[in-house]
UniProtKB/TrEMBL annotation:
<dbReference type="InterPro" id="IPR029058">
    <property type="entry name" value="AB_hydrolase_fold"/>
</dbReference>
<dbReference type="Pfam" id="PF00561">
    <property type="entry name" value="Abhydrolase_1"/>
</dbReference>
<dbReference type="GO" id="GO:0016787">
    <property type="term" value="F:hydrolase activity"/>
</dbReference>
<dbReference type="GO" id="GO:0016020">
    <property type="term" value="C:membrane"/>
</dbReference>
<protein>
    <submittedName>
        <fullName>Alpha/beta hydrolase</fullName>
    </submittedName>
</protein>
<dbReference type="InterPro" id="IPR000073">
    <property type="entry name" value="AB_hydrolase_1"/>
</dbReference>
<keyword id="KW-0378">Hydrolase</keyword>
<dbReference type="InterPro" id="IPR050266">
    <property type="entry name" value="AB_hydrolase_sf"/>
</dbReference>
<feature type="domain" description="AB hydrolase-1">
    <location>
        <begin position="21"/>
        <end position="258"/>
    </location>
</feature>
């Protein structure tokens, strides 16, 4: 991996292949390795870039006491500039999908395309009364849980809470994918876990009706219904949007159904290149 020095930390990233830039941003409490099936598939035809977002993977802890989706997007912009990448195709999962949405809001026609796996617009994925979100924040309880039990057990508790409301194996339908995800979570420092959660919870998405970037939203069949609703809303907002739902898959749709995800992405990418 290579590194990019920031004012308040170091961002680790990896590049493979040559061609049009295809940049992958992972989900919360994971790392760039979660895109391995996609990197292996597309590195022969694209310049594939993966990164470890602040708080995750090789990047690890950075100085700010508070993270935000906006800060993560600043880092993405800095990496694109550092590598001299123009008209990238951006692919984000979950938290990464928020980063891509923020990038498109800032630059509605700069990306050549966007693939949003497990796409979520806000957390929780529902509208709350105006001004009430700070007062309903689970951050105090989360901080207590982290101090008592650590990142892995806290994340497992979160999964149990989501499953209680959805009745499904929301994160993934494959035990081996679940195990790898939990291993990645276990590497996250407690304070970094808190800062990442805060970034997700505080994010307030903008209307994307001005976005001209071709956009594909991909959800797993067992994705939370409220998240699916957000995906449909997103597709209806952007000028050129489409949505696909893959069976036998959950939130980590690119890992549950890697071949199907890759085929759908390849079809979308061919359209972007033709355009």
């Amino acid at each position: 991996m290579a590194e990019l020095s920031l004012e308040d930390g170091t961002l680790w990233y990896e590049t493979r292949g040559d061609g049009h830039p295809l940049v992958f941003i992972h989900g919360g409490w994971m790392n760039g390795q979660s895109w391995r099936p996609q990197v292996d598939r597309f590195a022969d035809d694209y310049e594939v870039v993966t990164l470890d977002v602040r708080g995750h993977g090789q990047t690890g802890a950075t100085e700010p006491n508070q993270y935000s989706i906006e800060l993560f997007t600043d880092d993405l912009e800095a990496l694109l500039a550092h590598l001299g990448l123009e008209d990238p195709i951006l692919c984000g999962l979950s938290l990464g999908s928020m980063v891509v949405q923020e990038y498109m809001d800032r630059h509605p026609d700069r990306a050549a395309g966007a693939i949003l796996g497990g796409a979520v617009r806000s957390m929780p994925p529902m509208e709350l009364p105006a001004g009430m979100k700070p007062f309903l924040s689970p951050l105090p309880a989360l901080t207590t849980s982290l101090s008592l039990t650590g990142s892995k057990t806290t994340f497992r508790s979160m999964l149990c809470s989501i499953r209680a409301t959805t009745g499904e194996r929301w994160l993934t339908v494959k035990p081996e994918v679940q195990a790898r995800a939990m291993d990645a979570v276990d590497e996250i420092e407690r304070d970094e876990f808190r800062k990442v959660f805060g970034a997700l919870y505080r994010y307030d998405p903008s209307d994307l009706s001005h976005v001209r970037t071709p956009t594909l939203v991909v959800h797993g069949e067992q994705e939370a219904p409220l998240v699916k609703r957000q995906g449909r809303q997103l597709v209806s907002e952007v000028a050129d949007g489409d949505r696909l739902e893959l069976s036998e898959s959950g939130h980590l749709v690119n890992l549950d159904r890697p071949n199907a995800f890759n085929v759908a992405s390849e079809t979308f990418l061919e359209g972007c290149r033709a355009a």
